[in-house]
Design a protein that fits this description.
The complex is a heterodimer of chains A (about 325) and B (about 210).
Chain A lengths: L1 H17 L3 H9 L16 H37 L5 H7 L9 E7 L9 H16 L5 E7 L1 H10 L4 E5 L9 H14 L4 E11 L2 E10 L1 H9 L11 E3 L4 H77 L1
Chain B lengths: L1 H25 L15 H10 L27 E7 L2 E9 L1 E6 L2 E5 L6 E5 L2 E7 L2 E7 L2 E5 L4 E6 L2 E3 L5 H16 L4 H22 L1
Parallel strand pairs in B: 1-9
Antiparallel strand pairs in B: 1-2, 3-4, 3-6, 5-8, 6-7, 7-10, 8-9
Helix pairs in contact in B: 3-4
Classes of the chains: A alpha/beta (about 325), B alpha+beta (about 210).
Chain lengths: ~325, ~210
């Protein structure tokens, strides 16, 4: 009881001593401050630190869960991406790979993700697309964008709005399959005039490594032009064309089929890379949260011990004041 | 404090180890991504460096592909076939004697030493002959490339082994689409019904023939 009285006495005097503002100090002597923070903090509060710890712990749990989800999605889609890798190889074997081809109408198809929290892969794709745009836009050439995915759209719409032809989002709402991608390819081919399509995506090499890649699909006229000019597709003429009425019809079908095959592989690889990047981003996030939690726990313990010590000191000094 | 440092070191080493372990364990999955050191198209890399010197140039598909062997001087004895679908690589560098593909101009047989050809395929029967073994698939359309080094690439959208096809369903589908074709009004409906009829009659003849 005496201790309580002493404590109350201390509470009334402390504002006068510790408050920087004299007017407020007078006010608090009339009404002893009940609140623990702000003026005249009587005992050090651990509430602030405890709140922070709770929120950091929640964040750690959420990011751990997101990592597990991304890992399971990755396992499912990785198998399909691996299996689709054989699909674009025959085209490259036949027509070669010509990223440095010089054409009038370039279209850059940027593949990005719809959801965020997946590390830097979307920024990488956008950077590569922008650089390709710079390489390929000159006085007599033009370069347009076709964007797949919300994140690419958000970044590119800021400074290249007039160059964007087509935006397609929510690809992964339904299970990714070839039919869907071929419909997409059809839409792009119908609505966009092109001489060369440059598809930019992140190729999945391993869970921690994603390689930005660009695949080039040429329109049939350009294929003919390049094969006549010699160079990489030089020996296309030596191939006999079976089927269709004319060679150009078959080449047209070939170009369209090539585009849908390359797109299918690109979309799957990008989805794989997205999940892998999300896994590692969430993993490092949980790790950071864990570190932060460790530091906060130490602060919490120090604060707690300090407040106990302060209480003890006051009690003891009060008691010794009574005796002595 | 030492406990904290030790803990951090431990977690860092375990993450490195687990990342390395993950990379090495998962590499068997990614066996066909051989990042070839040959830096692809040099003209492209040059143009890239001028525009964006601080960013690494992107990779191009040719860097991920094993190069095809050149045309041999003597006729090879076997045909190397890659039969790929969007969902799987059915045959990958399989050495066979002969392949018969359903080109739009009719069934085409491919033997080692065939002239380089680009063939458009229609729905039909694909058979792979290896010694006395014959594997038959029904494919929806696609393309077939034959290269001068006796490599054949067959790309199809769908392929089913013949024994998985139900003849009753085929007949039912055929009659259904014939009926649709007769009652079709717009060009689009006619085209769709025609495609249905074509595929089902090809299925029919593949099953019987």
């Amino acid at each position: 009881m005496a201790m309580a009285a002493l404590r109350r006495e201390g509470r009334r005097f402390a504002p006068l001593v510790s408050s920087p503002n004299p007017i407020n100090a007078i006010r608090s002597t009339l009404a002893p401050a009940e609140e623990q923070v702000g003026l005249g903090v009587r005992s050090i509060s651990t509430q602030v630190v405890r709140n922070r710890m709770k929120s950091v712990r929640n964040i750690q749990k959420i990011t751990k869960a997101m990592k597990m989800v991304a890992a399971s999605k990755l396992r499912a889609i990785q198998v399909r991406a691996e299996n689709s890798r054989g699909l674009w190889q025959p085209f490259t074997a036949l027509l070669g790979d010509t990223p440095s081809v010089n054409v009038k109408k370039n279209v850059i198809v940027t593949i990005s993700s719809d959801k965020g929290l997946c590390g830097g892969i979307n920024s990488t794709s956008v950077k590569i697309s922008r650089a390709l745009h710079k390489i390929n836009s000159g006085p007599d050439t033009e370069c347009k964008y076709v964007i797949l995915g919300e994140k690419g759209k958000a970044q590119l719409i800021r400074d290249s709005k007039k160059d964007i032809e087509l935006i397609l989002t929510e690809l992964q709402k339904n299970f990714l399959n070839y039919t869907q991608v071929s419909v997409l390819a059809d839409v792009i081919l119908k609505n966009v005039e092109f001489d060369a399509l440059r598809i930019v995506f992140n190729k999945f090499q391993s869970v921690v490594s994603f390689l930005p890649t660009t695949a080039t699909v040429l329109s049939p006229e350009i294929v003919e032009r390049e094969s006549e000019a010699g160079g990489k597709i030089g020996d296309l003429d030596s191939y006999e064309i079976e089927g269709g009425e004319t060679k150009s019809e078959v080449l047209q079908n070939l170009a369209e089929f090539q585009f849908s095959c390359v797109m299918f592989n690109a979309v799957l690889e990008n989805a794989c890379s997205e999940q892998g990047a999300r896994m590692s981003a969430m993993d490092s996030s949980s790790r950071n949260a864990g570190d932060m939690l460790d530091r906060l726990t130490l602060t919490y313990n120090r604060t707690r011990q300090a407040s106990i010590t302060t209480e003890l000191i006051e009690i003891i000094s009060g008691a010794s004041a009574l005796e002595g | 404090m030492f406990r904290q440092v030790a803990h951090r070191l431990l977690t860092r080493s375990t993450t490195n180890h687990s990342a390395c372990a993950a990379a090495t364990i998962l590499r068997p999955y990614s066996t066909d991504v051989s990042t070839d050191a040959s830096s692809g198209d040099s003209a492209f890399v040059e143009a890239w460096k001028k525009v964006a010197p601080n960013i690494d140039p992107p990779k191009t598909p040719i860097q991920f592909m094993e190069p095809r062997p050149p045309t041999p001087s003597t006729l090879p004895s076997k045909l190397t076939v890659n039969f790929v679908l969007p969902y799987a690589a059915e045959l990958s560098k399989a050495e066979v004697d002969m392949v018969i593909v359903p080109a739009t101009t009719g069934q085409m047989g491919i033997l080692p030493g065939h002239v380089p050809t680009i063939a458009e395929l229609k729905p039909g029967l694909l058979s792979v002959h290896e010694g006395n073994d014959v594997k038959k698939y029904f494919i929806s359309s696609g393309f077939a490339f034959v290269h001068s080094n006796s490599y054949a690439d067959i790309l199809a959208v769908e392929a089913i082994p013949l024994d998985r096809i139900d003849p009753a369903q085929v007949q039912k589908g055929l009659s259904e689409f014939t009926q649709k074709l007769n009652s079709a009004s717009t060009d689009l409906d006619k085209a769709e019904a025609q495609i249905g009829v074509d595929v089902h009659s090809a299925l029919n003849s593949a099953l019987t023939g």
